[in-house]
Amino acid sequence: MEDIILWLKYLFLGFVQGATEPIPVSSSGHLIIAQKLLGLKQNGLSFEILTNTASLIAICFIFRKDIGRLITGFVQFILTRKEEYKSDFMFSLYIIIGTMPSVIVALFFKDQIEEIFSSVHTVSIALLVTGVALWLIRNLRGRKQDGDLKAKDAVIVGLAQAVALIPGISRSGATVISSIAVGMKQETALRFSFMLYIPISLGGLVMGASDIASDPNRAQLAIPYLIAFITTLIVTYFSMRWFMGIMAKGNLKYFSYYCFVAGILLLIFM
Fold this sequence. Notes:
The protein has 270 residues and is mostly helical. Helices cover 78% and strands 0% of the residues.
């Protein structure tokens, strides 16, 4: 019976991760809250890395055509210098530029950030900040498409992604908000945001591989971790598809309402 309860708890954690990773409400913040409610304490980064990897697989599958086109365009432009590949080359280059701030901050400050800010109180404040930002850009409709981006746009969005290393600040929210703020169209903002997610998540997987290998609870929690992984994979796919529809309609204001309500309730009750 205890095993079944534990499996259900990890299924719930997988659902929370999958549902919140693509949308601008902070998956890390919601996992902190969910673990506190369930009385679970994760030692090390194994669980976070596994569930993030599941979300990464789902998002890569959804954007597989974009990923293939960008890789092809990047390589072909280097080899041929043909103008037809330049837009994809520059977009790929801006993804690399936008990834750099998060890489630098993660390498030097990630442990300190998580130690200082991994509390429910911090998550509640961060959710309120996210809500305000979503509200401010709710009516913006940019014109920049993939070929119109500049290096400064990539730097600004990259810095926003670095700020999202603070638990409670949504990564997708920070990057989508900043992308729209610098004038990107909804579709371009969504694509650029999640293209930035892929290299930073891959880097986290590589850097955290040793945590998984050395996890003392690996054998004991193999089944719960597998349940969480599969749940995260499936739920992320459908959550991402749903969010793409929301972005197409420009209805980000509803997420600001959620962040306000969730942040206030956390401040009051937790």
